[in-house]
Structures are given as structure tokens and as C-alpha cells.
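Posting this for the archive.
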Amino acid sequence: MDNQNSQFDHNIFGGNNQGSQDHSVGSSYEYVFSSGGSTGNGGNPKPQKPNGGKKILISVITILLCAAFSFAAGFGGAFYAFQLLDKNETDNINAAPDQEDLYNSDPQSVLDKSESQTSPYGSAGEDVFEVSQVVQKVQNAVVVIDATVNTSSSYFGSQTSVSSGSGVIISADGYILTCHHVVENAVSVTVTLNSGSKYDAALVGSDENSDLAVLRIEPQSNEPLTYVEQGCSADLVVGEKVVAIGNPLGTLGGTVTDGIISATERVITTSDGTTMTLLQTNAAINSGNSGGGLFNLDGKLIGIVNAKYAAEGVEGLAFAIPIDSAYVVELDLIEYGYVRGIADHGLELLDITSSNLNYYYYKFRVDTIGVYVVSSEYNSDLKNKDRIVSVNGIAVTTKDDIEAVMENCKVGDQLTIVYSRDGKEYSTTLTLQEYVPDYYKNNDLQ
């Protein structure tokens, strides 16, 4: 970036730009998350969602839920924030695995995933367990996740807050599946087994698009880990009975609730326009359940709890990520640390609107509403303060407009970008690259 434009960049983004990353977080959603944190682990900053890329979850039915949808994940925010860590509670915690032990070049070899049975009785088949038998089989594989976030404010000063969620052990060697929003922005993550044993966890990878993350703990030889077999969510039928196990309220780990599958492909739209195709269930879900397991009556994991509908007078509307969708994400996170194949334009962009135009005119003499370039990673023609006029012949005025153009773009596709600089228009071609999180690049893990 040109030195003469560096002040524009610094004042807008606080001097800490992250390329093409989108810095929106889960709290902007209308989902009720049951956890409050984000990005945990062992030293890795959170992988951010790039501007543009493939949808991991495919929308089949579209519904706009306008009331208070929130992630059922971690139990955080005002109710649980600013809980100070007690040093005694950190004693005798098993250490996290080393960085070089986090990834596996053959993730299918360490995960247990069943094939579709296409049974008319649903994913569990005709011969099923009682709920109590399911619980005995899988309860030790469901863990409590405590994500630690350092915060500071003029009123409280420096504080350490802890938000709690749930997770499910998916392999004998310590991989744990949870929700992205449970561990987002955390500086450390502690996992507590059903036995009470505590482990420091390392972040293997996290994906905001799918709201999934994988952690890893180092199992001890004297305490073999119980892990789950992942079922086939495509076999689920409406009315099939399911069991949810998690950590509601951040303090009631191992809580069991049951219900049925209310819908198998419910598309919900959040307040920021994000859509997810989820399983709907009437099993009781509360804050802290996010990242926990939804199991069929064969004791197989068929969903990861991540959201509920929270409004006065509303009951029995909870949601989970289908395990078939989650499995695809797991494989990439365990092998690479991020989801492969997401197209990234490498642009840091800024929307200048009628509401903020006066500010940017006063600071930088920007006098036209539109979407502006702050930085460009993959194209040297685009400079700081260039206004993007069109992409592939479609007029754009906001970042969302550009995202819409890129909806079906793939890595290697080219964008024809018309941009304005000093009252003149120019055209350039930008080739989309594969999105790779900064922490992955910096640690040379490829």
C-alpha cells in the first residue's frame, strides 16, 4: 500500500488489517448462542471467514425467522462474563498436544462414520436402544468446554472472562468437534471430561461459515477416551426420536434431554443475512448446549447442537448442524486446519454510506457513496481508496453486492473489476485464490 494512503488505512481499521477477512462475529446473529466466546486454543488466532466463497451448507427450504434466534452455544455475555479464573482450578490440568501433533494426513482413518442405511424407520433403524442405553453408551464422549477471553474496560479494568459450551469426542486420539462460536476469540480452552478430568485443548481449526471447530486434547494412557460413531443424518426422518447431551447454563455438564426430529432441512436466516440448513428438534436446548451432541437411538452422533429460537412464549425450537455436513468440514480441519476450496478475492473493503459519508469526507476527502478498497492482496492495480464500480459487469455499491456476485465463484475464477480513481474509471482482472487463514500461513503448516 502506498505510504501516502497508510493513514486512511490505519484510521479506518485501527492499523491491524487482516487482508480479506471478514471481522463479523457470532454476536451479530439473531441466533441464541449457548456460549459467548470464539476461537480457542493453543496459541492460534481465529481463522476468519474470507470475503466470498462457497457455501458449506446447502439451503433447501427458505424461511426468515425475525424474532430472537440465537446460538445455543456457549454460556457467556453479561450473565457469565468476568468470571475470574481461580489458580487452584488450573492445577493438574493435562497439557495440550504439541503443534506438530494437531493434524492428520488421513483423517478418515481416525474418525468413525457410518454409511447410509436408507431405512424407512430412520437413521437408527428398527432395532433401537432405550434412551438410558444411549446415554450409557455416549455420555462420556460429551465434554464441557470453557473458553477463556481476556477483556478490558474503563469500568472493570482488565478481566478474564470464561464462557462455557459443549463438545463431542470424535476419535480415540483426542479430536473434539464443537461449534466455532463456542471457541471464537478465546486465548485458551479447557476441556472437562464426564469423569472430571481436565485438559488444555489446542485449536486444530475453525470455520465460521459452517459454525464448526475441531479441538484436540492429549489422552492419558490411564484414561482411554470414549468417542462416538458418527451416523448418517441423511437417513433421519421427521418424528424420529433423538437425544441431546450437553452443558446447559455452563454449569450442568452431562445434561440429557430428548425429543424428536421436527424437520430435517430447516433453512434459517440470521439478522445479518447468513443462512444455514439445520436439523430442527424439540429437545430442550439452553445456553451452554452449543457444540454438544444430538444422537439417534442407535447411539450415533447425527447432529451438533448450535442454535435455538428464544422468545417469550416460544418453546421446542432448537437446531443442530447435520452430521453429514459437519463431517466434510471435519476432514478438512483435521487434515489442513481450514476448509479447502473457499474462493478469496484478497480485498479488504469498506462500505461508505450516507450515514458515514460526512466522517470519511472530513477525514479523507471521500465524497461518493460506495464500496472502497482498503488493501488488495492478489491484485496490484487496486489501491487504497479506489472505489469499485462493478464486478463482472454488475454494478456494486456495497461489500454485500460483491459477495452476491461471488456466490458461485470457485478458486481460479477471474473477476473483471471496474474501479474509479481520481474521477477516472479503470478496469482490471483479479484471479480468485484459495483462502488460507493467516495463522496457518504463519506457522508454515502446509
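The two ends are 27 Å apart (CA to CA). Residues 1-68, 75-88 have pLDDT under 50 and may be disordered.
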